Amino acid sequence: MDTFKDIEDQFELLKREKERLELTLHSIGDGTITLDLNAKIISVNAAAEELTEWKQHEAVNRPLDDIFRIKDKKTGKIIESPYVLTIKTGVKHGLKKDTILVSKNGIERFISASFSPIKEKNDNIIGVILVFRDITRIRRTEEQLEMAKEAAVIASQAKSEFLANMSHEIRTPLNGIIGMIDLTYLTDLTEEQKENLNVVKKCVQLLMKIINDILDISKIEARKLSLNYTEFCIRDLIKEIINTNLFSAYDKNLKLYYDVDKNVPEKLWGDPYRLKQVLNNLVGNGIKFTERGFVKLNLRIKGVVEDKITLLFSVIDTGIGIPKNKMDKLFKSFSQVDGSITRKYGGTGLGLSISKKLIEMMDGNIWLESDVNQGTTIYFTASFKVEDYDAECLKEKPFEDNVINVKDYRWHVYSENNYILEERIENVLKEIEKSIETKNYEKIELCSRNLKRIASNPMNKQLKSIAFKMVLSARKKELERLKELFGCVVQQISEE
């Protein structure tokens, strides 16, 4: 009797455990279907009944494919469940992303599902449990997002193409305006008319620069901008950058320097036009935002791998600096640090954004260090191809030694600045000599203004004596007239 009682108690315990398990399965929000080794249904929970529209008493002992009919959304074809694969491999398997469950009454739902083997303690497989859920709402949302994304991409491309086309259309008449201004310069004009034309030309050139920036950013966004590779001399390019920005720096009494590591190879293979665009923008910004001190361009080698060399460029200025919390705005299109910057210094906020994208196209990156009222250093890397370069020379001087610090750096004077200004002064004085011979006093006065502007710069002390000697070489009979027209300059020079 005791043995029979024990068996009866165990049977009752197992019955309660089974009921607890069934309640647990029915309480799960996901659909669950348990299967035997013949793919026959053992049980179906409430969520599975709702999704398949088959009641448990209808589904039990029926083949899985009768209850769980799935098809591919893209092809519309019925697909086989991974039940057999789960039995063979003994591991869990899922369904493809675009799988649809077709219910008893033909309702279609996107589902995600997993088939897992049911194992005994000795790893013998005794069945499979299928767990699945309705993801129709999620898939509809994803489809809407994908459609919205595609529409946004199409709209962005259309905008970029429109801007590119319009920029071309606007540039054509602007080039015509600049040409007509240059032709008008050749006619007889009063000084006031010439000054007015200068203002017009500067405005047109500024507008042209803005249009070129818009054209570049629209090309980049439309992915129509490509680099044109050719061989070029990096040192000549750097000198050209300095020459281009030289008088802008001198107009503000700023020193403009450059320094190129002697190990940098002479010839590189890349896009010199786009590199100049980046450097002109960075050096120009340095001059624009610096009221006193200097702007310096440095070039170092970061590394060499086979025939590819990576260069590190840095532009240092002693300007207004940038707050730490506003640095992230710098490289965004149409963005500047704050509104006061735009009002005081001008600009569209496109230059650095374009530069960043061009640098990335050259397999580089850009970053900066800055302190308010202490200056800014902008670094960027760019990669170029190089032939027959001996990388052993880099071992003599590690790259870390070449990192530039704005606050503590011993820089060297760019000696060619004086040469360029001497050449400019010589050209001005030659014009004066010609005008003296033809008694064109208006031309003499105009040239003398240019000479006065250069000579009045406190940085040009050595050039003043050169200018004075050249003035004295003019014809003596007109020297008195020359002194009357720009005597203040001659007097200032003679005092040196």
Give the arrangement of secondary structure elements.
Layout: H1 2-27, E1 31-35, E2 41-44, H2 46-52, H3 56-59, H4 64-67, E3 69-72, H5 83-89, E4 93-94, E5 99-102, E6 108-119, E7 125-134, H6 136-185, H7 191-221, E8 230-233, H8 234-251, E9 255-260, E10 267-270, H9 272-288, E11 294-305, E12 308-317, H10 339-345, H11 351-361, E13 366-371, E14 375-385, H12 416-438, H13 441-455, H14 461-472, H15 479-494
Helix pairs in contact: 6-7, 7-11, 8-9, 9-11, 12-13, 12-14, 13-15, 14-15
Order of helices and strands: HEEHHHEHEEEEHHEHEEHEEHHEEHHHH
- The end-to-end span amounts to 131 Å
What portion of the residues fall into strands of 2 or more residues?
15-25%
CATH topology of the largest domain, by name, is Heat Shock Protein 90
The overall strand count is 14
CATH superfamily (homologous) name of the largest domain: Histidine kinase-like ATPase, C-terminal domain
Briefly note the structural class of the backbone.
alpha+beta
CATH class assignment of the largest domain: Alpha Beta
- Structural domain tally: 4
Looking at the structure, what is the overall shape? elongated
Quick check: average pLDDT? 77
Multimeric organization: single chain
CATH architecture of the largest domain: 2-Layer Sandwich
Question: What count of helical segments does DSSP give?
Answer: 15
Point out poorly predicted stretches: 395-420, 469-478, 485-496
Radius of gyration: 39 Å
| Largest sheet entry | 7 strands, antiparallel
The helicity comes to 40-55%
